Amino acid sequence: MQVPEDAQRIAESLVERGIAAGASAADALYVGGSSSSVEVRLGELEAVSRSEGEQIGLRLFVGQRSATVASSDLSDEVLGTLVERCLAMANEAPEDSYSGLAPEVLLERGELPWLDSYDPFEPDPSELKSRALEAERAALAVEGVTNSSGASASASGNIMALATSGGFSGAYRSSGHGCSASVVAGEGATMQRDHAWHSARFLEDLDNVAEIGAKAGARAVARLNPTRPKPGKYPVIFDPRVSSSLLSHFSGAISGSSVARKTSFLQDKMGEAIFARGVTIVDDPLRLRGLRSRPFDAEGVHVARCELVSNGVLKSWIAESASARQLGIEPTGHAARGAGGAPGAAPSNLYIEAGQRSREELLSVFPEAVLIIELIGQGVNAVTGDYSRGAVGFMVRGGEIAEPVAEITIASNLIDMFATLEPGADLEFRRGIDAPTILIPEMTVGAA
């Protein structure tokens, strides 16, 4: 794997070769990474892995025609062949009136923003093993836990470099540390499994691994002896473990390509109130140590904090250059891609701002409600917004969490869910997409 400066020079050189070969425009994306992980089960080592890899992708334009190729061999001879092949493919590609690089006026210029995203410390396998074993021991120590599905600890490092013939060149690196544990509670047909995990850019920000294990054990035990509620209409509360999934559906619906293809249930909602007053949804690519922070997008476009929803009103799509041209807007700084493909659009650190009421207050709003901690299946229609998913959780009565429930479905429509949801005050930044506890006043709950 290259250092960022060398990766950047390789990308720049490949762009220069593409232009010299006859392309009208070009960009090159280098992606390199390394990772180490250790897995244990019942106190014994199960697996140790270490991987390193790098890949570079080249996109060449010949007028309105374009093609993309990629290689994991970065030798000079192979890169020369890569340019020839890509240019030949571009000459044979169909014309696309929306293709092209990002407008030069929108490119990130000057010194890149500092994101504090790289921890140079790399633990050795013995440290990772010790961390995984500690997490598992803490999980198995929880009364009622009867078996382990395993625990793991990991560390990783990544480098991304991008160069374009439009005048952009930049590179950045990031790191990651993680730990997880999964255990079983109960015996025979009554067994229940659950897990806990955490990841962070810096090891010092990683949760205490014993606490991760203890949380996994407590979660598994709490799920023992589930029942099913009587089918009907219930208030539904999404625990932070699953509430971020609602933002994933939202971000897919405001993707420029979905809107341009008219396959989004929000395609006609720009400028309208789709959430309740006071609800704000933010995308922040510049958060220090954020898991999805980036100093530029995958087309080299300048990035900044953006309120996608402000006081309930939809304010912006997320669009790379191609879909932005289809929609008649400017690219929004949300381009994302791998080395081998054309850019699409994706959020960075996406979150819904905390509401006014605490989690405890949301649990107490209704005499009876259903708290969801796990969602199963993919029963969401992106075109209509119809929502139906399997779920696991708990009944809530009088503000107190009561018996566990399983093998249920929750159903509604995302337009109605968005319009009535209330975020709690317990927002924490722990993932790439974050949301607090969320209350939806009414959904249909049935048997799975």
UniProtKB/TrEMBL annotation:
SUPFAM superfamilies: Putative modulator of DNA gyrase, PmbA/TldD. It holds the Pfam family PmbA_TldD_1st. Residues 231-446 form the Metalloprotease TldD/E C-terminal domain. Residues 26-90 form the Metalloprotease TldD/E N-terminal domain. Gene3D superfamilies: PmbA/TldD superfamily (3.30.2290.10). Residues 119-224 form the Metalloprotease TldD/E central domain. InterPro entries: Metalloprtase-TldD/E_C (IPR045569), Metalloprtase-TldD/E_cen_dom (IPR045570), Metalloprtase-TldD/E_N (IPR002510), PmbA (IPR047657), TldD/PmbA_N (IPR035068), TldD/PmbA_sf (IPR036059). Belongs to the peptidase U62 family. This is TldD/PmbA family protein. It comes from Sphingomonas limnosediminicola.
